[in-house]
Amino acid sequence: MRKVIIAVIASTLALSSFASRAADLPMRVGLNQDTDMMKRSSVQNHMFDGINLTEQQRQQMRDLMQRARHDSPPVNISEMETMHSLVTAEHFDETAVKILTEKMLHEQVARQVEMAKVRNQMYRLLTPEQQAVLAQKHQQRMEQYRELSER
Q: For 89, which DSSP code?
């Protein structure tokens, strides 16, 4: 149960960090700053590391991210505060924690599905050559993960 709570809190913090950094993207003036910030701040853009994108592709991806940010509900701060209250309460209420955790996980799943949809739209913007590079980099990452998991 502790691992589930930690995972929920960590993913919520990661998403809030992503959302706060992503909110800065359209306000940046320089093109290189936009691209660098996008690569550093958004989790899904690791997917595109090492892919040379055209300016048109970069702009389309920024537009997709801006729409996704606009359409996605904000992270529920009151749920995070409620979870903190439950964790720090004098008497632990396991039922309340389970109910809140399930609600938070359901919201997290919805956000993950929406981000996967955006990543798919971004992927479809790539040329076949860029998709091949992406597939190769994905295989390399998977091999690294397998090596780490075997240790």
A: S
CB-side neighbour CA atoms (13 Å) of 136: 8
Distance CA 59, CA 116 (A): 19
Cα distance between residue 14 and residue 111, in whole Å: 12
Q: How far apart are CA 116 and CA 68, in angstroms?
A: 11
pTM (two decimals): 0.60
Question: What are the structure tokens assigned to 146, written together?
Answer: 């397998």
Tell me the mean pLDDT in the region 75-85: 93
CA distances in angstroms from 5 to 54, 86, 98, listed in the order given = 41, 11, 9
Q: What Cα–Cα distance (Å) separates residue 54 from each residue in 7, 85, 107?
A: 36, 48, 34
17-36 average pLDDT score: 40
Place of tokens 């660098």: 36
Structure tokens at 8: 């929920």
Task: Band the pLDDT of 36: cuts 50, 70, 90.
Answer: very low
Rg of the chain (C-alpha set) = 18
Provide mean pLDDT across the span 72-82.
88
What's 15's DSSP letter? Answer: H
